[in-house]
């Protein structure tokens, strides 16, 4: 390249290019992309369902229920752990609820609660276990996603399921019932 060509072409350093690109992206994010303006502000509306009462729960004795639908993929477990847990409700924040289908391949976890470790599993398919004190995080096994946790609310002694954190196995959306 000749000296004359070097002097006439615009010279932008990598740093200047990246800074300019970051500024442009910030403007797009602040102003929004047409057609998607309210997409990030949508809120899923789950059914509100009474699933138990605080006074009826015994430590380490699970109760099973269906939520958010009444089908094979909606099996859940409510349990009082006796120790504080992530997402827990009640006086000790020790009452939690989770899906009973493994997130790896949908293996049945009902009946596999381990009171000693406050965990559910191992899954009979590939031996995944989930830590119920830590929002259903994978403790061991093949699964890569935490167990979906039921969002709970209490009113007096009553316990209500009001939402889900995580995608239930077998659904493309927790709020779209399975079509069979």
Short description:
By secondary structure, this protein is α+β, with helices and mostly antiparallel strands.
Tell me what you see in this structure:
It is a single chain. The protein is α+β, with helices and mostly antiparallel strands and 180 residues long. It folds into 2 domains: 3-41; 49-165, 3-layer Sandwich (Rieske Iron-sulfur Protein). The chain has 2 helices and 10 strands; from the N terminus they run H-H-E-E-E-E-E-E-E-E-E-E. The chain has helices at 3-8, 14-31; strands spanning 49-53, 63-66, 75-80, 95-99, 113-114, 119-120, 129-131, 137-140, 149-155, 158-165. It has a 4-stranded antiparallel β-sheet, with no helix packed on it. A 3-stranded antiparallel β-sheet has the order 1-10-9, with no helix packed on it. A 3-stranded antiparallel β-sheet has the order 2-3-4, with no helix packed on it. Strand 5 and strand 6 (119-120) form a beta hairpin. The radius of gyration is 24 Å and the shape is elongated. The N and C termini lie far apart (68 Å).
């Amino acid at each position: 390249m000749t000296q004359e060509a070097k002097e006439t072409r615009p010279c932008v350093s990598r740093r200047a290019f990246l800074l300019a690109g970051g500024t442009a992206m910030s403007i797009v994010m602040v102003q929004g992309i047409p057609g998607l303006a309210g997409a990030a502000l949508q809120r899923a509306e789950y059914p509100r369902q009474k699933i138990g009462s605080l006074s009826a729960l015994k430590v380490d004795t699970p109760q099973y229920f269906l939520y958010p639908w009444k089908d094979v993929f909606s099996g859940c477990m409510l349990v009082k752990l006796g120790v504080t847990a992530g997402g827990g409700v009640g006086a000790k924040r020790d009452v939690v609820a989770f899906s009973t289908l493994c997130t790896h391949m949908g293996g049945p976890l009902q009946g596999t609660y381990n009171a000693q470790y406050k965990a559910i599993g191992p899954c009979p398919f590939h031996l995944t276990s989930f830590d119920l004190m830590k929002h259903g995080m994978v403790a061991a096994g093949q699964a890569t996603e935490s167990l979906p946790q039921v969002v709970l609310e209490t009113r007096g002694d009553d316990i209500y399921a009001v939402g889900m954190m995580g995608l239930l196995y077998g659904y493309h959306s927790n709020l779209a019932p399975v079509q069979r």
